[in-house]
Amino acid sequence: MERYPEVVQEVVRSRPDVIVTGVNINTTAVKALTDTIPIVMFIGTDVIGQGYIKSFAKPGGNITGLTWDVGGGTVAKRLELLKEAAPTISRVAVMFDPPYEKEYGAVIQSAAGSLGVSLLWFDATDDFERSFEAASRERADALFINGGARMFGRRGEVVALAAKHRLPAAYFDVGFVASGGLLSYAPDLVTQFRAGARHVARILKGAKPGDLPVEQPTKIEFAVNLKTAKALGLKIPKSLLLRADRVIE
């Protein structure tokens, strides 16, 4: 991350036909350096508010691609599934990168109120170990991971800490569940990246990014890791397993 500004400048100077970006920090850095090279974002959030596009149907400018946003309902549903998988939980530690707290904090709080659980908020951008220890001191009995790219890159560490502190956890990507996390409910990244590749192909064939509609996720995937549930002493209800798109045993 320390070299990121330097790398972005190097990429823009090379004048590529198109630049692919991941999350907002990538897109913002590239956008600041060029308004002519086509940019295809694969995991954008709040893309209109960030000034990347004018509208989903007609982005205008040099940025198009995909948004990760599917509305607050998906975030609330993830907390509901966690409560259903672990019915006795009452104090949930929410770990977040700051932008995601601002975007979905009210939604998570409202869902928690409906479920009868209290929330403990932790900014986990720097020291995950310290955040988990703080959550343990506050007697958290479950974990809700609410983004972003920094946590995804260190998902093995996050999952290991959740296991160490015996916290049933809900995550924002199936990659955490594949790494040993309990459950996730989120857009499918494979589908997302394939759609992004189609955008790149169209631009390479002459399409203008400003004319290519920005797509929203079309597939929300629910995944459960039964091995992790067993380690935590949880018996996942059959009704919940029947709704899962992916069950890891």
Keywords:
249 residues; alpha/beta; Rossmann fold; 2 domains; seven-stranded mixed β-sheet; three-stranded parallel β-sheet; 11 helices; 43% helix; elongated
Helices, strands, pairings?
Blueprint: H1 4-13, E1 19-21, H2 24-31, E2 39-44, E3 63-67, H3 72-85, E4 91-96, H4 98-115, E5 118-123, H5 128-137, E6 142-146, H6 149-153, H7 155-164, E7 169-171, H8 174-178, E8 183-187, H9 189-204, E9 220-225, H10 226-231, H11 238-243, E10 246-248
Parallel strand pairs: 1-2, 2-3, 4-5, 4-6, 6-7, 7-8, 9-10
Antiparallel strand pairs: 8-9
Helix pairs in contact: 3-4
Give an account of the 3D structure.
This protein is of the alpha/beta class and 249 residues long. The protein folds into 2 domains: 4-69 and 189-218, Response regulator (Rossmann fold, 3-Layer(aba) Sandwich); 72-187 and 221-248, Rossmann fold (3-Layer(aba) Sandwich). 43% of the residues lie in helices and 19% in strands. The chain is built from 11 helices and 10 strands. It has helices at residues 4-13, 24-31, 72-85, 98-115, 128-137, 149-153, 155-164, 174-178, 189-204, 226-231, 238-243, and strands at 19-21, 39-44, 63-67, 91-96, 118-123, 142-146, 169-171, 183-187, 220-225, 246-248. The strands form 2 sheets. The chain has a 7-stranded mixed sheet with strand order 5-4-6-7-8-9-10, with helices on both faces. β1 (19-21), α2 (24-31) and β2 (39-44) form a beta-alpha-beta unit. The chain starts with a helix and ends with a strand.
